[in-house]
Design brief:
Layout (H helix, E strand, L loop, with lengths): L3 H32 L8 E6 L5 H10 L6 H10 L9 E6 L4 H10 L4 E5 L6 H10 L6 H8 L2 H6 L15 E5 L4 H16 L10 H17 L6 H13 L7 H5 L38 H8 L8 E4 L5 E4 L2 H11 L6
Antiparallel strand pairs: 1-2, 3-4, 5-6
GO biological process, one term: peptidoglycan biosynthetic process
Keywords: Cell membrane, Cell wall biogenesis/degradation, Lyase, Membrane, Transmembrane, Transmembrane helix
Protein name: Endolytic murein transglycosylase
Length: 340
């Protein structure tokens, strides 16, 4: 009788192992049949989960959209993983190549849909507002401008102005849908100051002195076409200021218009505005664009020379002159001939 006990135990263990293996296999099979991907990922669906929305509503929407095989199984999966209270609000990009477990993982981890936008160098705040509106990140340009003139934001970064113009660093960003506009502005300003760390001359600079550099950089950014010309262009503007010569920057005139003009006329140069550097001496009251790193570097490291004038040639480069006569001769050679 004693010899039968070990044999019985062995058979029992084998039976238990068989049952466990069978149960695991069955679970995998059921998971694949009921919880596997519906398709190959070609069909996409934008799932919007509102605050406080019950999981049953989410499951129903996924089923109706054809993103899951079984709503019963998905509800079971939520209960089994105790995820009912972990589903986060937001907008998610789902596709039919995702299994039920993958979809659940996405909506409980908060991996919401991101919107990517690129701000070109030299965009002003109005243009950024339009860009965000087109990307449906802002309801209107005015909403974004309100966020960029928030006194709390200006005080946080000690900006001696009434707007963040000049401090929203032009780059590519990715944010969730419905991301607050003040946080977008704050994110862009953080990037600005992070980039500023790469300029050794900016270390320890006062807010007022930095603002002056940003004003110069913003003008250079809008005037220059080629990066290598930025330092000498910055030097031209500084020399004109030192000699009490008006900047006469077309870029400051363009800032007065809702959208830049293809060509400025004499009447445009006579517009009454503190930003009109044709009729006003000194710097404009604030930045006219958001400069990139090359323009900021030019403002901190200008190339001084005897040049006082420059004009844009048809090939995209600039012709720099030391005298007004030389400038007029260059204008006849490169500009006037285009309109004859």
């Amino acid at each position: 009788m004693a010899s039968k006990k070990p044999r019985f135990l062995i058979l029992s263990l084998i039976g238990i192992a068989f049952l466990v293996i069978t149960a695991i296999t069955a679970a995998f099979v059921i998971d694949e049949i009921k919880g596997g991907a519906v398709g190959d990922g070609q069909n996409k669906y934008e799932l919007i989960i509102d605050p406080g929305e019950p999981s049953s509503t989410v499951v129903k929407e996924l089923s109706q959209a054809g993103m899951i095989k079984s709503s019963v199984y998905f509800n079971y999966l939520i209960k089994f993983t105790r995820s009912g209270n972990k589903i986060k609000q937001g907008i998610y990009e789902i596709n039919d190549g995702m299994s039920s477990r993958k979809i659940l993982d996405v909506i409980i981890s908060g991996k919401v849909k991101l919107v990517t936008f690129t701000v070109p160098e030299g965009y002003n705040n109005r243009q950024i507002g339009d860009l965000l509106t087109n990307k449906k990140l802002a309801k209107s340009r005015e909403d974004f401008l309100a966020a960029t003139t928030n006194p709390a934001l200006l005080q946080k970064y000690k900006i001696p102005a009434k707007s963040t113009e000049g401090y929203l660093f032009p780059e590519t960003y990715s944010v969730p849908v419905n991301f607050p506009l003040d946080r977008i502005a704050d994110m862009m300003m953080k990037r600005f100051y992070k980039k500023l760390e790469s300029i050794s001359e900016a270390k320890g600079i006062s807010p007022a002195d930095l603002h002056a550099k940003v004003v110069l950089a913003s003008i250079v950014e809008r005037e220059a076409v080629r990066k290598e010309e930025r330092p000498i262009m910055a030097g031209v503007f500084l020399t004109r200021i030192e000699k009490n010569i008006n900047l006469e920057s077309c870029a400051t005139i363009q800032y007065l218009f809702d959208k830049p003009k293809k060509r400025l006329f004499e009447t445009d140069l006579k517009i009454i505005s503190p930003y009109n550097t044709y009729i006003n001496g000194g710097w404009p009251p604030g930045p006219i664009s958001n400069p990139g790193l090359p323009a900021l570097l030019a403002a901190f490291r200008p190339e001084k020379s005897d040049k006082l004038f420059f004009l844009l040639k048809p090939d995209g480069s600039h012709y720099f002159s030391a005298t007004f006569k030389e400038h007029l001769d260059a204008k006849k050679k490169y500009i006037d001939v285009l309109y004859q």
